[in-house]
Each structure stands twice: as C-alpha cells, then as structure tokens.
Design a protein that fits this description.
Number of strands: 0
Order of helices and strands: HHHHHH
Structural class: mainly alpha
Helix content: over 70%
Distance between the termini: 25 Å
Number of helices: 6
Length: 109
C-alpha cells in the first residue's frame, strides 16, 4: 500500500495540472492529507462510493498519462544516473567541483 501511495503521490505531482479541480481536490485529500473516503464524502456531502469511484478513475488517468508521457520514469532514471555519477566521482576521488555540480543537478529535480 505504501508503494502505491508513493507512486500516486509522484504521479499526482507530475500530472496534477491535467486534472479537474474536483479530481485534484479528492486526490490531495486522500493521498496527501490522508483523509478517509468517508471523511472526504462528508466534507463534500456525497456518498463514499462516489469518492471511491472518482479516486479510482483519477488513478487510472494518472497511470495513463504516465504511460504516454513517462515523466515519472524519466525522473527516476535521472535520479539513478545522478546517484551513479556521484558514486563514481566519490570512488575515484575527483575534484569537489564535479561533486557540487552533480549535487546541483539533484536539487533541480
């Protein structure tokens, strides 16, 4: 469950601009604020099932966006490459400037 939550949080970060206000709100309350379906339903005076259906549809949309645009996958690969570069640089006792530049790359993501 934590793995799915983490993935959804990342996908939400990358693709939230493509969602409607209602979808964005439900996902934020459910995944970021950790509210239950019942709490969200109560806040919006709708059924728990309506919240559940909206969240599941939105999750599917986020996965579809990722399948087509691959922003999260590219981010993960960049992070992995930066970590590998850092390891190699540290392993070979290279100059501090190079390490600082790699750390700067990490900060940009």
């Amino acid at each position: 469950m934590i793995e799915k939550t983490t993935r959804m949080n990342f996908l939400f970060d990358f693709y939230q601009a493509l969602l409607t206000d209602k979808q964005r709100s439900y996902m934020q309350l459910y995944y970021l604020d950790d509210l239950s379906l019942g709490e969200i339903a109560e806040e919006y005076t709708i059924s728990r099932q309506a919240v559940y259906d909206n969240i599941r549809r939105t999750e599917a949309m986020l996965e579809e966006y990722e399948e087509k645009l691959s922003l999260f996958s590219k981010f993960q690969r960049r992070q992995e490459t930066v970590e590998n570069l850092l390891f190699l640089v540290k392993d070979q006792s290279s100059e501090k400037e190079l390490i600082q530049l790699i750390n700067q790359l990490k900060e940009w993501d």
